[in-house]
Amino acid sequence: MTIRFAESARSTVGVEWELMLADPLSGDLVGRAPELLAALEDDSAAERHTVTGELLTNTIEVTSGVGATVAHAIDDVRRAIQAVRAATDPAGIALLSAGSHPFAQWYDQRVSDKTRYHTLIDRTQWWGRNMMIWGIHVHVGIEDRDKVLPIIGALTAYLPHLQALAASSPFWAGERTGYASNRALVFQQLPTAGLPWPLTTWAEFEAYLEDMRRTGVMADATEVRWDIRPAPRWGTIEVRACDGLSTLPELAAVAALVQTLVERFSRELDEGRTLPTLPPWFHRENKWRAARYGLDAEVIVDSSGSQRPVREHLAETLELLAPVALDLQCPAELTRVAGILDTGASYARQLAVADAQGDLRAVVAHLMEEFRAGLD
Prior knowledge:
The protein is built from 13 helices and 13 strands.
């Protein structure tokens, strides 16, 4: 199977953000996306941003255009949200973002009426119906497809760092899970989801897809649901491991971290260096640790098994990436990563609200307020 990788300008960036629709008083999810989307999709047709539906009718996704910088892409997202709020505010619908809703139940939600979604649910059954998860995706342009798999291999070592920063799903169906990101472990139950296979060349990726197509596992590359995957249609590497960020500044911070890491690895390849990788079993353990402990995790950072607190390793990584961020015009956004390390990720803030008020509806109210405040 030959897979064309689209032309894409190097280190351009795009972001996708899945948003929940909720009743502003009760905090319950509301499946009202279908009544809003026709007008929103038509209105965004002439814009750089897009507004679309998702698996569940309680979700709307906003997507940036191709940004020359992180700020460029985030500005698209801001305008998209303004358009969405122009529809949701009069309709009495609130917006919020996290990896999971604190107390909603899967059996109260409706699946969007699209063949691809019904096919997914029919195949995956209970796990598919439990996909009450929300995330963000970050795309970074790659100018040479031969770089794609080596960069994915190196970037996988930083998935726990990204996952810990974005972790925002400590509750599931009304229960405190004990995990910073319960979403990470739920999502990997889908076929073709989870950590990327350790492929090193584009030919190996094409062979993988041919095996999947021939055996009926998937129809095409869009059904690869890895935590990091090639996105051939757009000419990008797409990071999909993160929970839904609760605020727009946090979204910008994570996008900047992804963009600068990719560019740094791309420069290493330009210099003829081989990018470092970890054994797959270390990646699996790191993913679980980040899901369980968030920013308090200790992660494996090299092939010899050295372990470091993820906060410390992230702080060191930010120093290494600072010159790259200057070149990519995102130093302010990258600096916000340090702010998350200082103030705590969304999962910690949610747990603090729950402990203080003893009510998960208060957690939803907190998420709604954070979302609104982050747009100012």
